Amino acid sequence: MAEPRPAVAAARPSAPVPRAASPPTLASAQHPLVGRIVEKTAARVVVERIFCASADPYLQDSRVGGRACVPAALAWEALAETAELALGEPVTGAGALKSAGPLFLDRDGSLTVRLEAERAGDRVHATLYVHDGGAPRVRFGAELTGGAAAAIA
């Protein structure tokens, strides 16, 4: 017998949610989840991304235990996009994936994350951090490769 589906927590708004203007980025068209580039060198890229339910309407439908959160697929994609900026080419391989659970939005409906990508040859170590009043906490991490390196790995 199938498990009963949970009831919808709240009705969806009937009017479209206005989108907030996003700050310009170096690669916004190719990397829509990058947000604001804080630092970019040949070996390191640091990005800050603010997820906000009013600016990112898809977040209104993503919930764990009734709490709004950033879908894990978006967190992984944000890591990959940041790694692509460090590699200078598309990510084609991933390994050593680590996740510390859902990325819950704050009470105000937003969450600021910091993404860091450190290049070492043809590989990138990418990490997503959350600052919640204290020291930054690692929430997602991966070792990513691009181009031919992934085909060999």
Oligomerization state: single chain
Run of helices and strands = EEEEHEEEEEH
Outline type: globular
Whole-Å distance between the termini? Answer: 43 Å
What's the main sheet like?
Answer: 6 strands, antiparallel
Radius of gyration: 17 Å
Which range does the strand content fall in? 35-45%
Question: If you average the pLDDT, what whole number results?
Answer: 80
Helix content: 10-25%
Structural class: mainly beta
Point out poorly predicted stretches.
4-27
With helices defined by DSSP (H or I, 4 residues minimum), what is the helix count? 2
- The count of strands amounts to 9
Strand order of the largest sheet: 1-2-7-8-9-5
Describe this structure in words.
The model is unreliable at 4-27 (pLDDT under 50). The chain has 153 residues and is mostly beta strands. It contains 2 helices and 9 strands, in the order ββββαβββββα. Helices cover 14% and strands 39% of the residues. The radius of gyration is 17 Å and the shape is globular. The strands form 2 sheets. Strands 1-2-7-8-9-5 form a 6-stranded antiparallel beta sheet. Strands 3-4-6 form a 3-stranded antiparallel beta sheet. The N and C termini lie far apart (43 Å).
Task: Summarize the SSE layout with pairings.
Layout: E1 36-40, E2 44-52, E3 63-64, E4 67-70, H1 72-87, E5 91-99, E6 103-104, E7 110-120, E8 123-130, E9 137-146, H2 148-152
Antiparallel strand pairs: 1-2, 2-7, 3-4, 4-6, 5-9, 7-8, 8-9
In short:
The chain is mainly beta and 153 residues long. It has helices at 72-87, 148-152, and strands at residues 36-40, 44-52, 63-64, 67-70, 91-99, 103-104, 110-120, 123-130, 137-146.
